[in-house]
Amino acid sequence: MSRIARVLLLVWLMAAPAWPLRAADVAADASPPALPLPPEDVVLRAIADLPEVRYAEAAAEAARARGDKRAIGSAEAQLTFIPQQRRIDSGSRYREWELDLTKSVRWPGKVALDRRIGALEAGTGQLGVEDAHHQGARLLLAQWMAWLRAGTDARIAVEQVALLERDRAVIGRRVELGDAAVKDRLAADAALSEARALALESALADAAARRDLGATFPSLPLPQRAPLAIAPPALPGAPAAWVERIVTRSHEIGIARRNAERGVAEAARARADRVPDPVLGMRLLSDLGGREKVYGVVLSLPLGMRYRGAEAAEKGAQAAAARAQAELVEREVRLQAAQQVGRAVALHAVWRQRDAAFAAARASAAKADRAYALGEAGIAEVLLARQARQTAARASGRAAVDALEAVERVAVDAHERWHRHDETLPVQGDARPSASALKLPALGEWQGAE
Question: Which fold has domain 3-76+109-273+331-438?
Fold first, then answer.
C-alpha cells in the first residue's frame, strides 16, 4: 500500500463512531447529567398499584376494625325470657314468666388497656402499609437498574458490532488489493460473528429486563430504550448520618417496637384479667298470673384463678420475646444499613477505577488502529485491543449502574427517594447533618419513548 493510501486509511479510521461517553467527557459539559430515573409522581402511582401494597392496605383496615372491636368489647347485653305455667292440685293454672337482662362489665383499667392494644394494632397495620410501599420501591429500583444494566450491555455490544463491521470492510478491501492476507479477513469474520452473537444475547437480556419491569409495574410508562447511567453521583454527607437516618425511619423497627409495646399491654391485660369481670343485671318475675311480682338485681362473678394465672404468665413471656425481637430487628436493620452505605461508597470508587481502565483501553485500541493503518501492527493486535476495549467498556458501564443503584438504594431506605410522606428526622446531637446536607441530587427530566 502506498504512503498516500495509508494516510487516507488513517483519516478514515479516526472518523469512526464515538465510543460511549465517559465521566471525563460528561464533566466537560456545564450542566450536570440527569439521573436516569423515572419521576417520583409516576413511581409512587406505580408502587401504589402493586398487589402487595393493596393487600397491606386491606390488612390495615382489618387491623383498625379489630382495634375498634377490642375497644368496644365483646361483652354485650343478654336478654333471657322464660315463660311457664304453674298448675296446683286444685286444678288452677297460672301463667308465669321470668325476664333477665344481664351484661358483663369490664373494670375501667381493662377498658384503657383494650383501647391501648387496639390503637397499637391499628398503628402496626398502617406501618405495614408503609413497609409494603417501601418494599415496592426497593423492587422497582432493583428491576429498573437491572434494565439499565442490560441496556448498557446491549448498547456496547451494538457499537462493537459496528466497529468490527467497519474493520471487516477495510480488511476485505485490503485483501482485494493484495495488501493483506486472507487469514486476516477470516480473523475479522470470526470476531464479527462473535460480536453479533453477543449483541443478540444482550438484546434478548435487555428485552427480558424491560418485560419483567413492565409486568411487575404495568402502570409505569417505559421509554423504548433504557436510559444511560453515565456518571453516577457519589453518596453525599457522612456515611454514619445515612445509617442513623435509615435506622430512625425504618418501618421494620417501627413494627417490631409496636409489637413489643402491644405485647407489654397484652401482658398487663392478662394480669388484670386475673380479677374477673362481674356480670350485672336485672331480674323480673311474674308469678300466679301476675298476683306476685318479683324484682331483683343479678350479680355474677366467675371463680377460678389457675387458668387466668397461667394465661398471664404466657402473655408475660410473649412480651419479653417481643422486646427481644425488637432489639434483634433494630440490630439487623442497623447492620444492613451500614453494609449498604459502605457498599455505596465502595462501588463509586470501583466505578472510577473501571472508568479509568476503560479510558486506557480505548486509548490503546486507538493506537492499535493507527498502527494497523500504517502497517506497523497486524490484525491480531487490532482485534485483541478491540476486545479489551469492549470488555473494559462493559465493565465500566456495569460499574456505573452498580454505583448508581447502591446510592439510590440508600436514598430509598432513608426515605429520601420514592417515599410518600415528608417525615422529619429528629436530631439527636450534632453527629447528624441537616436534611439539606443529606439531600441527593434532584431527579432529572424524564426521558420519554425514543
Answer: Outer membrane efflux proteins (OEP) (1.20.1600)
